[in-house]
Design brief:
The structure is a homodimer. Chain A is α+β, with helices and mostly antiparallel strands. Chain A has two domains: 35 residues, no CATH class; 135 residues, Nucleoside Triphosphate Pyrophosphohydrolase (Alpha-Beta Complex). Chain A contains three helices and ten strands. At the A-B interface, strand 2, strand 3, strand 5, strand 6 and strand 8 of A face strand 2, strand 3, strand 5, strand 6 and strand 8 of B.
């Protein structure tokens, strides 16, 4: 079956600080049309970093859309849409946790909510860490915590950890660790 | 450390079909203010459904923001923001795959991209399936596939599966299956 939709019209409703909002008209496979709302974002990265004591570096952060403090792995958005994701990951890990990793590996892309969001999150794992000072963005307030991998997986399975990239990247880290690949 | 941000001003820039866009001014913990862009969404559900042959029900769907056909578990948004997530999950599973499950269990909430999106995705697992007809929404075109759980986990680990809810819910299903809990 042909599933493709074609852009017929496109209109920017908002061009903002972090996101843009577009409203398009799309041609569907059956010849009818539909409205498609699209949130554009420059893309982001996250890093699931494992210490030599098998702990994962986590940041506790207030997330405004949920009015809630949640636990996440270090992450951030790209400065511009051509920034190299790996370089962005190295920077965000350092800024938020003070850590530098000798060993960084790709854990795949994440599409947060593909019905209406165009953001890509590049996920990385990291081991062989050394620590220096943190330097978060000026409008960013966070606490750093180290949580044992097994405890964190339990928190993910129990529903305590809600962030999508954190659940995915940490479960991948656990899978690789169980297989002896990291 | 106090991490909380307080809403000072709030303005709707767009009230749409699926999403709303708000631009707020927030008071930060250090007394300064920052702009917060928030995408509101009624919330959604997804269902990782396992057949008695250990296959996961998947749908292949064109996702307009990425101009790409991707593989996902069945999912959908709530009809309104008070709809019971479990009932929504039962409906979406039936509509998209024709399946009805005797055993449904909660796999936790997912926050897709908590910096600017307020959507909650309730994740469910399902077993003991029986099959009838599908009835997708009129502007929804999709192909249903069954993929063995182990093959799907490999596709997730290799980066082939990009959807956030699918990666998370299937890795949780795999964890529970390996533990003998489902």
């Amino acid at each position: 079956m042909n599933l493709e939709e074609k852009q017929l019209k496109s209109e920017y409703l908002y061009k903002g600080k972090i996101i843009n909002l577009r409203r398009d008209e799309a041609l569907l496979p059956n010849g009818t049309t539909a409205l498609r709302e699209v949130v554009e974002h420059p893309g982001g990265v996250c890093v699931a970093a494992l210490t030599d004591k098998n702990e994962v570096l986590m940041v506790k952060q207030f997330r405004y859309p949920y009015s809630e403090v949640i636990l996440e792995i270090p992450a951030g958005k790209r400065d511009h849409k051509d920034e190299n994701p790996l370089e962005c990951g190295i920077r965000e890990l350092k800024e938020e946790t003070g850590a530098t990793a000798k060993n960084l590996f790709f854990l795949g892309k994440l599409y947060p909510s593909p019905g209406y969001v165009g953001e890509i999150i590049w996920m990385y794992g990291a081991t062989d860490l050394s620590f220096g000072d943190t330097c978060p963005d000026e409008d960013e307030f966070l606490d750093v915590e180290k949580i044992p991998l097994e405890t964190l997986v339990e928190k993910i399975m129990s529903g305590e950890i809600k962030d999508a990239k954190t659940q995915t990247a940490v479960l991948k880290l656990k899978y690789l660790r169980d297989k002896g690949e990291i």
